[in-house]
Design goal:
By secondary structure, the chain is an all-alpha fold. It has one domain. Helix 4 runs antiparallel to helix 5. It is flat.
């Protein structure tokens, strides 16, 4: 039991350090505008990678729901520019398409 606790504490430290070190290093420093613009795109890039992987690995019965979901998320993201709203709309439309009985 004690070794599991040490393992969990070690994993927590290793997970938290990459977040803490840049925060401490960049506190009270002005970041270049290009770097700031690049870092602002990371959430959208990460989401795009996850969605593309999900579509490429979806089975035949989920392909239509995946395409509808990514389409809805892309349109909402383009119109509104809201990441949370686009993700929720994509999930909702995918759920609706999966549960429609023809």
């Amino acid at each position: 039991m004690k070794s599991y606790l040490l393992l969990i504490i070690g994993m927590a430290i290793v997970t938290y350090l990459p977040r803490l070190v840049p925060l401490m290093a960049l506190t009270n420093r002005k970041v270049n505008k290009k770097v700031e613009d690049f870092l602002s795109l990371i959430p959208y890039t990460s989401l795009s990678i996850l969605i593309a992987r999900g579509i490429l690995t979806s089975n035949d019965e989920m392909i239509l729901a995946s395409i509808v979901g990514i389409g809805a998320a892309g349109i909402i993201s383009y119109i509104k520019g809201n990441l949370v709203l686009s993700v929720l709309s994509g999930i909702l439309l995918s759920f609706i398409v999966l549960n429609i009985t023809i």
